Amino acid sequence: MFMGEFQHSIDEKGRLIIPSKFREELGNAFVLAKGLDHCIFVYPMTEWNRVEERLRQLSFTHADARSFSRFFFSGAVESEMDKQGRVQLPPNLREYASLDRDVVTIGVSARMEIWNKQTWSTYSNQAQGDYELIAEKITDLNLGF
Fold first, then answer.
1. What H or E segment, with its residue span, contains residue 110?
2. Residue 17: pLDDT above 70?
3. Regarding beta strands 29-34 and 102-109, do their DSSP bridges make them parallel or antiparallel, or are they unpaired?
4. Do residues 87 and 18 lie in contact, with contact meaning Cβ atoms separated by under 8 Å?
5. How many Å separate Cα 121 from the centre of its chain?
6. How much is the pLDDT for 136?
7. How many domains does the chain have?
8. CATH code assigned at 110
């Protein structure tokens, strides 16, 4: 399981050091994809296969399903870490998530997310203020809180 928040920098070659806590969980190969809220989702292959299978079940006759699938899969790329625990972030994903130098990686259960540091700070501060309201809204999901 991925959890925690870590601050890192992208080097001049577009590489990011994966937090050591996340390396084993990611495994040798993993997938980078355009995430929601302008971050990058990072999926271990086992989780990517689950997500891919669920999206494959969507009806291609629904315009929203087609649009989402096109956007999501067109930006996805299989990747791996080098011996120093770094991953090369493709230019299109860096541009999508506005990643320049300072980034934040967070664990979100079955995936990791990579955020622009300022974007994460803004999002996190806003979500923190709404945390209790959001919890009330999702009580129907029976999360056991």
1. none
2. yes
3. unpaired
4. yes
5. 16
6. 79
7. 1
8. 3.40.1550.20
* Helix ranges restricted to H, the chain: 20-26, 45-56, 63-74, 91-96, 117-137
The boundaries of the domain holding residue 86 are 2-141
Residues 37-52 have a mean pLDDT of 97
Q: Which residues contact 99 (CB under 8 A, 6 or more apart)?
A: 10, 40, 89, 93, 114, 116
Mean pLDDT of 77-100: 97
Q: What is the DSSP-derived secondary structure letter of residue 85?
A: S
Q: Quick one: what percent of the chain has pLDDT higher than 70?
A: 96
User: CA 110, CA 19: separation in Å to the nearest integer?
Assistant: 15
Query: pTM value?
Result: 0.92
- 8 in Cβ contact with 83 (< 8 Å): no
